[in-house]
Amino acid sequence: MRRRKTLSAEDRRLWAGVARTAVPLKDKVLPSYPEEAEAPPQRPAPAPFDPRPNLAPTSPGRHSEPRALKVQPSIERPTKRKISKGRIAIDARIDLHDMTQDSAHAALSNFLRQAQMMGMRHVLVITGRGKPGGARGILKRMVPFWFASAEFRMLVSAFENADRHHGGEGALYVRVRKR
Fold it and tell me: Which helix (H) or strand (E) holds 77?
């Protein structure tokens, strides 16, 4: 036989706080919970982390993008092998080491725009791997998120981790989208 557990005053207060934030189902009423006088003041919840850069909203128009562009998560294996072995040349490279996120974002955007204007097809973006025992490499984590944003989807068609002699996990092969 199961024993029913009674809630402590603290548990009842916590549950009442959670229940007040719930949205009742259709045709159901939210039960009332007594207000506790000794309830400590609640701190506002921190804003959730958004890895995407804070971009200004686009102006409303009929279509913000002419067509749906998607970034492929990876370059095809034969193409990557040819880049790695040097049969397909890397047209340009950018090193983002020791840059802040803001300056790296601006530098990468300008670099990819220039590469697209000059008709370059494959470029190398060096982000760094981070420190082994310390920081995990913020640019290594953020650059793929940036490539998924609307700003970079117009510039990048695919990207993949570079081969070991080009920087390994600390660098990316990037295929620049044709104009």
Answer: helix 77-85
